[in-house]
Design brief:
The protein is of the alpha/beta class. The protein has 18 helices and eight strands. The chain starts with a helix and ends in a 13-residue tail after the last helix.
C-alpha cells in the first residue's frame, strides 16, 4: 500500500470521491493508460482499480502537490465532450479528466443540505486542486465535469481566476434526437437531469405543478437544453474573454481549427503536426464511449438515422421549444464563439 505522502504527490492517484460525513477524500490508483480506456471516471468504469485509500481532507491538502495550470470544458451532454477531452490528452501537453465523481459528490452534498456556502466553496477549491495535481512538469490539466456540476461553474471560475473554460453544447435538434434514440435509458436520464437542474433554479419557464406532468420526455429534454443554454449565455457574458463557446457540429466539421483555437485559449503547446496527428488518431476515429471504430461519416449516419426514426416527435418539440426560447429570450447561438 502506498504511503499518504506518495499518494498526494502522484497524480495517478485520482481524488475520486468526497465522503461528506467523514470529511475525507478517497483516492484510487488510475494510471494514464486506464484514463484512456474508460469514457468516465465513475465507479462503473473504475471498479477494477482496487480498494480506495481514504485520507482526511485537511491532512490531504497539507501534503498534496500544488495544482498545475488547469482549464475547464463545461458541456450540456451529448455534444462530443468526451471525444474532445480525450483528444487533448497528449503527454507533455495536457491531461484530460473526464467527469470525476468527486465534483458530483459536492453537488449532492449541496442538494442534501443545508450546508454553508463558505464550506462548499472551500471543499470545492480544495477538490479542484487535488484533481489538478500535475502529471509531468509543464503539463496542463483539462477538467471536464459532468453536466450535473454546471451549477458550480461560476464558483469554479471565481475560485480559479487563472483558468479558462470552453462551453460545449449540441444544437437543440441534435440534443433532442440524441435523447429520443437512446430509448428508455435516455428518457429516464433526462428526467433525472430535469429534477437536478430544477433544484439549481435553472428551469424557470412558467411551467409548474400538474402542467409538468403533461410534458413528453422530449419536451422535458428541450427544457433541460434551454436551461443549460441560458446558463451558458450568462457565463459567457459574465466571464468575458475567459470563456469560449462551441457547438458539436462545428467541432466535428472543423476539428483541426477547433484544436488550434482551443490550444490558444488554454495556452497548450500544440503545433500543427501534433494537431494533425490527433485528428487522424483514435479520438476522432473511434467511439469515445465504446472504443470501436467510428469515423465522422459514421457519426453523421448515426445522427441521421436517429433523427429519422423519431422525426415527427423531434420536429414538433423543436418548433415548440424554439417558440418558448423566443418568449424567454434564450439565444440558440452563444456569444464568445471559439471559431469565427
Amino acid at each position: 500500500m502506498a504511503e499518504p505522502a506518495q499518494i498526494l504527490r502522484q497524480a495517478e492517484w485520482l481524488a475520486h470521491r468526497y465522503d461528506t460525513v467523514g470529511d475525507r477524500v478517497q483516492f484510487l490508483h488510475v494510471p494514464r493508460q486506464r484514463h484512456r480506456e474508460v469514457p468516465f471516471l465513475t465507479d462503473e468504469y473504475l471498479a477494477p482499480a482496487g480498494e480506495p485509500v481514504a485520507l482526511g481532507r485537511e491532512a490531504a491538502m497539507a501534503e498534496a502537490a500544488g495544482p498545475a495550470s488547469h482549464h475547464f470544458i463545461f458541456h450540456s451532454a451529448f455534444c462530443c465532450s468526451t471525444l474532445l477531452v480525450r483528444a487533448l490528452d497528449r503527454e507533455g501537453v495536457a491531461m484530460g479528466l473526464s467527469e470525476p465523481v468527486l465534483l458530483n459528490d459536492i453537488v449532492g452534498w449541496r442538494h442534501r443540505g443545508p450546508v454553508e456556502g463558505a464550506k462548499v466553496a472551500m471543499v470545492l477549491d480544495q477538490g479542484l486542486n487535488l484533481l489538478a495535481r500535475p502529471w509531468s512538469p509543464g503539463e496542463a490539466i483539462v477538467l471536464k465535469p459532468s453536466n450535473l456540476v454546471n451549477a458550480l461553474a461560476p464558483a469554479m471560475l471565481g475560485l480559479h481566476p487563472g483558468s479558462n473554460a470552453l462551453l460545449l453544447h449540441a444544437p437543440l435538434e441534435d440534443f433532442l434526437a440524441s435523447i429520443a434514440r437512446k430509448g428508455l435509458w435516455g428518457r429516464l436520464w433526462v428526467r433525472d437531469l430535469f429534477l437536478k437542474l430544477g433544484r439549481e433554479g435553472l428551469l424557470q419557464f412558467g411551467i409548474e405543478g400538474q402542467d409538468l406532468l403533461k410534458l413528453t420526455d422530449i419536451q422535458v429534454a428541450a427544457l433541460c437544453w434551454m436551461g443549460q443554454q441560458r446558463q451558458f449565455h450568462d457565463l459567457a457574458v459574465r466571464f468575458g474573454g475567459r470563456i469560449r463557446t462551441l457547438n458539436s457540429e462545428d467541432l466535428m466539421a472543423r476539428p483541426a481549427e477547433t484544436l488550434a483555437a482551443l490550444a490558444a485559449h488554454f495556452a497548450l503547446n500544440l503545433d500543427q503536426a501534433a494537431i494533425e496527428a490527433i485528428v487522424s488518431g483514435p479520438a476522432f476515429t473511434r467511439n469515445s464511449k465504446t472504443g470501436s471504430n467510428f469515423s465522422a461519416s459514421d457519426r453523421a449516419a448515426d445522427k441521421a438515422a436517429g433523427l429519422l426514426a423519431h422525426a415527427d416527435e423531434v420536429e414538433k418539440v423543436h418548433l415548440w421549444a424554439k417558440e418558448l426560447a423566443r418568449t424567454h429570450s434564450i439565444q440558440t447561438e452563444l456569444p464568445g464563439r471559439l471559431l469565427p
